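Ops channel
N.P.: pipeline sanity check, posting one input/output pair.
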């Protein structure tokens, strides 16, 4: 018989440490990638700040629990339209400010490459807000061009960039 083996029961693992804000910050590292749109609640759950304002937060954990109560199961895709709106306005504002600072005299048109996210809901939001902000759409293939043409019906003033074919 091997002298290192014993009849003793293995030690039970230590119970997990209580969940804290600090543990959540260490795990999720939101400061490294959240760009001010995400934070940790006092309960240690992830909050979303669609307009970078912690006074107006959405608790992601509460959303998931509510969806599970209605029969949805993870993985879930959760869209926060106000976040997309805020990002587009920030982008427009950043370019407008840079153009003003360097006294750039030509125009600027931001274009959204639909290959990034071709979901209809997202593309329609970008189209609608883009019309207000002077954005356009970019297609890099024939199928993408067909999608962009269908998407911009009734928005004939929206710039379309054909790139890559």
């Amino acid at each position: 018989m091997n002298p290192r083996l014993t009849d003793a029961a293995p030690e039970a693992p230590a119970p997990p440490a209580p969940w804290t804000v600090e543990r959540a910050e260490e795990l999720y590292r939101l400061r490294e990638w959240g760009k001010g749109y995400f934070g940790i609640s006092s309960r240690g759950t992830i909050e979303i700040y669609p307009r970078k304002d912690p006074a107006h937060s959405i608790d992601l954990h509460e959303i998931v629990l509510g969806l599970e109560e209605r029969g949805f199961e993870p993985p879930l895709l959760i869209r926060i339209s106000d976040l997309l709106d805020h990002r587009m306005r920030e982008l427009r504002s950043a370019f407008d400010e840079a153009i003003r600072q360097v006294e750039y005299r030509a125009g600027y048109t931001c274009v959204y490459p639909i290959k990034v996210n071709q979901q209809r809901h997202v593309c329609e939001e970008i189209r609608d807000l883009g019309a207000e902000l002077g954005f356009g759409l970019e297609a890099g293939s024939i199928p993408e061009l067909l999608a962009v043409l269908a998407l911009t019906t009734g928005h004939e003033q929206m710039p379309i960039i054909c790139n890559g074919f």
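N.P.: looks fine end to end. The mean pLDDT is 91.
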